[in-house]
Each structure stands twice: as structure tokens, then as C-alpha cells.
Amino acid sequence: MSLSIRRVVTGHDAQGKSIVEIDDVAKNIVSRRPGHSSAVIWTTTQAPCENTEPGDQGLRDVAACAEAGAIFRVVEYGPGVSPRMHRTLTIDCAVVMSGEIFMALDDGEEVLLKAGDVLVQRGAAHDWINRGDAPCVIAFVLMAAKPVVANGKTLGALG
User: Is the pTM for the entire model greater than 0.85?
Assistant: First the structure.
């Protein structure tokens, strides 16, 4: 799999004029299991975010969201991607950019998502299953959230 995502990041010069600060291909690519590639596009560590923070915030080594932050990433799930049931301590807004994929919940329910579909994942345990013959690419924005509490128990991160 060769995930190649062009990033264009704007900012401001010393006089406050809008400029393009970054125009490149995302370099922070990780794989968490066979058939998976993830490009970190941008991250924040606080809310509200700082628009003048120096440096490339897409180069941070992030597996999870900062306590008050957010992560923008693009993920490619290849056909037959290895399973990984997990729960994040975030609200994840997702847009399927290409291909199709099943989102499976811990009770066995599955929902087929296709290019153009959107999903809001609110701390639910889930897995991504690509039964097709083409990769599925999804853009995610993960926003820090309080853990889910069910039956008096706090549901922590999984996987």
C-alpha cells in the first residue's frame, strides 16, 4: 500500500498576510497492522487551537489524541486488513473518500460505508473490515472527548 496524500497548510507572514506554509506529501505515515496505512495530516494539543504555533504539526508521533486536542488523519484499509476491535476516547468524524468498508461493532452489527458516506463515531468499540478487492480510504478528524460511562463503568480505550 502506498498512501500518498498532498497537504496544503496555510498560515500568516509577519505582516499578517495569508500564505501557504506547507505544500507537500504527508510524511508521517504509520501502519498499525497488516493492510493498514495512516497519514497524520495535522494535530492540535489544546482547545481552542493555536493558529500561530510554529512547526509542522503533522509530524507529531500520535497514536491517541491529546486530552484537549484533535488529530486529522487519512487512513487506507487494504482488502483483508487485519482485524482490530478498538475504542478511542474521541469523537471521530469520518468521510469515506474511496472504496467501501464495513464498520463492525462489538455486538456483531455491521454497517457498509461507501465513498461519500460520513460517520460520527462516539467512543463506540468498532473494527474496520474491507471485504472488497480495492483499498478503502477514509479521512478522519478525531476530537478529544470524555470517556463513555455505561452502567456506572467508565469505558476506556481498547486496542
Answer: yes
